[in-house]
Specification:
Keywords: Coiled coil, Hydrogen ion transport, Ion transport, Transport
Number of strands: 0
Order of helices and strands: HHHH
Family: Belongs to the V-ATPase G subunit family.
Shape: rod-shaped
Helix content: over 70%
GO molecular function, one term: proton-transporting ATPase activity, rotational mechanism
GO cellular component, one term: vacuolar proton-transporting V-type ATPase, V1 domain
Distance between the termini: 142 Å
InterPro entries: V-ATPase_G
C-alpha cells in the first residue's frame, strides 16, 4: 500500500495487457505517458489557478492597506488642523489679555496719542509765539 493508487492501476493494466498484446506494448506506454501528461497538465492548471487566486487576494490586501493609509493620513491632518486652531485661539486670548493688561484698549491708546499730539502742537505754537520776534530779526 506504499505504492500510489495510480501506479498500482497502471501496473495492473500492464500485467493484464502486456502478456496478451506484446506487440502493443509501445502503444500502451505511449498512452500511459499521454495520460500522465494530461494529469500533470491538470495539476499545472490547478497550480496556476491557485497562484492567480493568491495574487488576487494579495492585490485586495494591498488596496485595503492603501485605503487605511489614506484614512489615517486624513484623520491625522484633521487632528493637526484642530490642534493648530486650538493653539491659535489660546495664543490670541493670551495676546489680548497681555494687551489689555500692559497697553490698555486700542481706543485708550488712540486717545493717548491724540492727547500727546495736541500737547506737542500746543507747545510748538507757544514756542513760535514766544520766539516770533527773534525769528523776524534773523530773516530781516
Amino acid at each position: 500500500n506504499s505504492v500510489p493508487l495510480r501506479e498500482r492501476q497502471f501496473r495492473a493494466i500492464e500485467n493484464i495487457v502486456l502478456p496478451v498484446l506484446r506487440s502493443q506494448t509501445v502503444a500502451l506506454k505511449t498512452r500511459k505517458g499521454a495520460f500522465l501528461s494530461l494529469i500533470m497538465a491538470s495539476h499545472q492548471t490547478q497550480g496556476i489557478q491557485q497562484l492567480l487566486a493568491a495574487e488576487k487576494r494579495a492585490a485586495e490586501k494591498v488596496a485595503e492597506a492603501r485605503k487605511r493609509k489614506v484614512r489615517r493620513i486624513k484623520q491625522a491632518r484633521e487632528e493637526a488642523t484642530a490642534e493648530i486652531e486650538q493653539y491659535r485661539a489660546e495664543r490670541e486670548r493670551q495676546f489680548k489679555e497681555y494687551e489689555a493688561k500692559h497697553m490698555g484698549s486700542r481706543e485708550d491708546i488712540a486717545a493717548q496719542i491724540d492727547r500727546d499730539t495736541e500737547k506737542h502742537m500746543q507747545e510748538m505754537e507757544d514756542n513760535i509765539k514766544k520766539n516770533k520776534d527773534a525769528v523776524g530779526l534773523i530773516f530781516c
